[in-house]
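Question: what's this shape?

___
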Amino acid sequence: MHHHGYLWAGSKQRFDDEALRRPPHPDPPPADSRPELIQRHRAVRAEFPVVDLPPLETAYWLIKPRSLVKGTWEESKEAAAWVGERLAEYAPRFGSEADRDSSRLAVVVNSTAERLSWGSDVSHGFYLERPAFLSLAVVCCPNRVKPELACPLR
């Protein structure tokens, strides 16, 4: 098992576009559906695999373009260290004073390492200066939740 790291920082409004953050339903709408419903399904089906927005289910990062992988690690502690480095990098921009607390961030990093060592995916989100959002994720590969998803590096 190895781990892939993903980072997204951007507009909170864009982050809130949940239609592009969830996989499309496998079955298209019936042919007699409203044209806008059919068009929206086609758009989401085409965009979901390539859009850089964080998926609602962390494992779906694995179907995103390889270029979105920010790092790959064999050891969970290495992946957690990357999360810690990103947290230190973005902490001055966190919207909440409590989120900037170094002891709280250390707990987040330690928890990340522990959860990854169990084979769990990890996802963290932080509000930055308004109206921005930071999403950090580390995905186990092969993935226990979605074993059918292929490694993005292969």
User: Anything to note?
Assistant: The mean pLDDT is 95. Residues 102-117 form the longest helix (16 residues). The CA atoms of residues 29 and 39 lie 10 Å apart. The longest strand covers residues 2-11.
